[in-house]
Every structure is written in C-alpha cells, then in structure tokens.
Write a structure and sequence with these properties.
binds nicotinamide-adenine-dinucleotide; binds thymidine-5'-diphosphate; three-stranded mixed β-sheet; Rossmann fold; seven-stranded parallel β-sheet
Length: 351
C-alpha cells in the first residue's frame, strides 16, 4: 500500500504508529489526520515532521466532506483509524462527545472510504483500532477476553468503542469492505497524556503531589508497552485477514495498588530519593463510577496466526517509561501548562 491515512496520529498510540510507519516504510506516504483536541500534540512527532513521506492534515473525522477530499487528494489505499476520545473519566462526565467522535466519527470515516473506493476493494484496507474494554469486566478468576467474548461495555467510553466496532464489521458484512479490528489492553509508555494513571502518577511524584488511587486499588489491568502495540498494528495491517478481529495484550496483569507501589519505587530511585520517600503520597479516593474490576486479554490468536509477541518485559518498559518522563520534563511541563496547544500555530501558522 502506497498511501496510508492514520487518524489520531498526534495522540499517544497514534504518534508511535505514525513514527513507526514513516520510518519503516519510506516508499509509503503517511498522512496523519488529526483534529488536535486536548489529547493531540504535534510535539509527539517532532522527530518525523520534516520527513518527505509524512504529511500532517488538521481535520475532524466527523467532517465527511473533508475526509472524502483528503482520501481523494492523497489517493489513500489504507486507513488506520485511531482517532477517538479515549479517557473513561471524561466519558462519565461528557458522554455526548464520545458518541460523536467515536461512533459518528468512525461511521463518517467508513462512509467516506466506501464512497471514495467505490467498491474497488483491491489493495484497500480499513483498520480499526479498538479496546478490550468493549468486552466489559472480568472477575478475578483467571479468565481472559478472547475474540469471541460477548460485548458487554459498561462505561460511555467502552459503549462508544463497542458501537464503532459494530459499524466497522457491518461495513464488511454489508458492502464487502476489507476491514480488520484489533482490541488491545491498557497501553503505557512515552507521550501518554498525563491524565492516565501512569504518566499522571509519575508527574505527581515528581511534584510531591497526592497519588489518587480509586477505591481500594484492587482493580486489575493488563499492561502493554506502546511500542509492542505499534508493532502489532504494523503486523496486522500487513498480514491480518480481512474481516477478522485480533486481541492484543501483554499477559501482564497488575492490581492498581501494586502497580502504583512499583511505580513509586522506580520513580524514587530514578529521582535519587531515599526508598519509601513518596509512599506517603498514595491516597485512596472515591472510586470511579461503574469501575470495571478486571481486564485481561488472550492474545493467542494473534500470536498463533501472525507470530506477534510482546518484546518488552514490564520491568524494562516501566523503567524506560519513568526515565522518559523524567528526562522529558519539558514535554510534560508543556502539556500540563497547556503550552503544547500553541505548537500547531507555531509550526503551521494559525490555519
Ligand atoms: P489519545 O486520547 O491519546 O489520542 C487521540 C487522538 O485522536 C488525539 O490526537 C486527538 O486529537 C485525536 N482526535 C480526537 N477526536 C478527533 C476527531 N474528531 N477527529 C480527528 N482526530 C481526533 O488516545 P490513545 O490512547 O492514543 O488511543 C488511540 C486509540 O487506541 C483510540 O481509538 C483508543 O480507543 C484505542 N486504545 C487505547 C488504549 C490505551 O490504553 N490508551 C488501549 C486500547 C485501545
Ligand atoms: P486509566 O489509565 O484511566 O485507564 P482505563 O480506565 O482505561 O483502564 O486507569 C487505569 C486504572 O487506574 C483504572 O482501574 C482506573 C485507575 N486510576 C486510578 O486509580 N487513579 C487515577 O487517577 C486514574 C487516572 C486511574
């Protein structure tokens, strides 16, 4: 595929996917289509922005005319759709924005691609990046989500992602559009917006601020280093079977409270603090409404069919992550101060 449109490429995972594709596929033109909401930050892609095979376009996935025009202008054959509202806590207070971006935005992308490709599916692919949260919540009993687990979303975020997954499959089943869907577990790593657990807590430790653990902290998440996710996206994009779903996960389950204790230990060590210095910051706060108890992914289909496996151990990945946030305090300060929002105007003028 020569021309690949990646939506949400200025966000956390999207920026890793864009960087990987721009660097690995110099003969492909990578078009990053992103609205630059609060979660989009072009500074995440500073190192690739001057490359010949990379173009940034500011736009909204809900804007049918613009999406269609961009598909046409760049002769797009492949779409990797990551643009979304992604934070569960925000979805609890503002579900409409999640329905708009995640459901209507995905439907708009599908319809624009269908109208542009006009049934000539040869060499085309719509790849939808989704989450394990569509499957709902597991008990603490060793069970794991597979590709045939029932959809049972609980939060407005996961309900909106579930709906978008259904639309993608509907376009495959109804019109024959070549699609793949992946459902991935919690990601962590560089460039994650510091409202999510790991970067928020690293930043708070840095400033000696409280670490708000929701409820008892016994909820379990299955953590995957973001580079491992980006590599899985690459493999599925190139080798995945059309119409299929692949689960992606690190087989790396942690109770929140244990993860927070480990994070505190690593961060204190890297800051040169005495062991135990930041333990006092751990603060139990009111639980998230409808807080899913446990997520865990069975990725054996992806491993068996396409040979993917995580390469980073959690110890490696987490230490690299803490080190990255501490070494890149300028990035972190730019995001927390809001200055990152001016990056686009500085780079591209105020268009
Ligand atoms: P993010 O919030 O960091 O980034 C989202 C990006 O989408 C931002 O750059 C934002 O500007 C852009 N965007 C939002 N609304 C848009 C719109 N209307 N038009 C165009 N661009 C828009 O999200 P993330 O954590 O990188 O997640 C990316 C995708 O991966 C999402 O679809 C998410 O559901 C999925 N996912 C995330 C995780 C995770 O742990 N973060 C796990 C599994 C799946
Ligand atoms: P988060 O990073 O928001 O991801 P998700 O909700 O998509 O799993 O949260 C990860 C876990 O950490 C989740 O169980 C909620 C919990 N959490 C806290 O305890 N405190 C916090 O401040 C945040 C942001 C999350």
């Amino acid at each position: 595929m020569g021309n690949i449109l990646i939506t949400g490429g200025a966000g956390f995972i999207g920026s890793h996917v864009v960087r990987r594709f721009v660097r690995r596929y110099p003969n492909c033109h990578i078009i990053n289509f992103d609205k630059l909401t609060y979660a989009g930050n072009l500074a995440n892609l500073r190192d690739v922005e001057g490359m010949d095979n990379y173009t940034f376009v500011r736009g909204d996935v809900c804007d049918y005319d613009m999406v269609r025009e961009v598909l046409c202008r760049y002769h797009v054959d492949g779409i990797i759709h990551l643009a979304a509202e992604s934070h569960v806590d925000r979805s609890i207070y503002d579900p409409f924005t999640f329905a708009q971006t995640n459901v209507m935005g995905t439907l708009t992308m599908l319809q624009a691609a269908k109208d542009y490709w006009q049934g000539n599916w040869n060499g085309k692919l719509f790849y939808h990046v989704s989450t394990d949260e569509v499957y709902g919540s597991l008990a603490v009993d060793g069970s794991r989500f597979t590709e045939i687990s029932r959809y049972e979303p609980h939060s407005p975020y996961s309900a909106s992602k579930a709906s978008s997954d259904h639309f993608v499959r509907a376009f495959h089943d109804t019109y024959g559009m070549p699609v793949v869907v992946t459902n991935c577990s919690n990601n962590y790593g560089p460039y994650q917006f510091p409202e999510k657990l790991i970067p928020l807590f690293i930043n708070n430790i840095r400033h000696g601020r409280p670490l708000p653990v929701y409820g008892s902290g016994e909820n379990v998440r299955d953590w995957l280093y973001v580079e491992d996710h980006a590599r899985a996206v690459d493999i599925v994009f190139h080798e995945g079977r059309s119409g299929e779903t692949y689960n992606i996960g690190g087989a790396n389950e942690w109770r929140n409270i244990d993860l927070v204790r480990l994070l505190v230990r690593i961060t204190d060590r890297l800051l040169g603090n005495a062991p135990g210095t930041s333990d006092r910051l751990i603060t139990h706060v009111t639980d998230r409404k409808g807080h899913d108890m446990r997520y865990a992914i069975d990725a054996s289909k992806l491993t068996g069919e396409l040979g993917w496996q995580p390469e980073y151990s959690f110890e490696q990945g987490l230490e690299a992550t803490v080190r990255w946030y501490l070494d890149n305090d300028e990035w972190l300060d730019g995001v927390t101060s809001g200055d990152y929002m001016n990056y686009y105007a500085r780079m591209y003028g105020d268009r």
